[in-house]
Fold this sequence. Notes:
It is a single chain. The protein has about 270 residues and is α/β, with parallel strands linked by helices. The protein has a single domain, classed as Rossmann fold, CATH 3.40.50. The chain has helices at about 20-25, 85-95, 110-120, 145-150, 155-170, 175-185, 190-205, 210-215, 230-235, 250-255, 255-270, and strands at about 5-10, 15-20, 35-40, 65-70, 105-110, 130-135, 220-225, 240-245. It is globular. The model has no long low-confidence stretch (mean pLDDT about 90).
Amino acid sequence: xxxxxxxxxxxFGLVLxxxxxxxxxxxxSSGGSPGELVLFLHxxxxxxxxxxxxxxxxxxAGYSLLVPDLPGHGASGALEDLTYRLQDHAEIILRLLAxxxxxxxxxxxxxxxxxxxxxxxxxGDLPLASFISVEGNLLEHDCGIxxxxxxxxxxxxxxxDKFVKLLEKASRAEAADTRGWAKMAEHTDxxxxxxxxxxxxxxxxxxxLYEMFAALAVPKVYIYGEHSANAEVIARLDGVHKIEIxxxxxxxxxxxxxxxxxxxxxxxxxx
Length: 271
């Protein structure tokens, strides 16, 4: 599948990546629909390249793929009047979905993207077919050094000093996936990162995200990396279908890209 980049002004300048047939369906005055839509939502400091392997995965043939850069991340511009709460991100994605025709929706959310995805899934007016949490935030244990340390730092200090130092440290990390994250995070607005982190920590600590995930009535799966498995979280997911991606850490979407996207395509196909 060929990936196309477009900007939707009505969605606050949101930059998204999709294939040509989805664009054609959106422009089709006859009301044609691409059918099944797979929405990928990236994590804090990440961007669409988290899911770059999706375009080469043959298992997604017959599905429409939609991969937005969240506000203030990647190619999507920063917005001065946005608080960057998780609710803000979710609202903008809803505006995006309103412009795209589809009959069934599959949500795949990594880390913070999993939390935003839950806010979308909780709405009863979306034709949600399945939900895949990729180490998506559910509980306080899910907030690691990146999000919690950022949230605990005063905003102006983080923006003027700590964010740059965080990226410098991550770029020298031994783990290749952490260095890869640092390259993506270079394109993240510092205010967007900090405010998103604050909201993410608040929601994770509240336990509300876990309750939302547990209440999902559609088929749901929790995917995690072998080296980043959180025992406290996994223990709370009794009865939920869980899949471990071997030799991968938290950034498993790029750490084991081919295996990850093959796994996701198989889950969706099997319903």
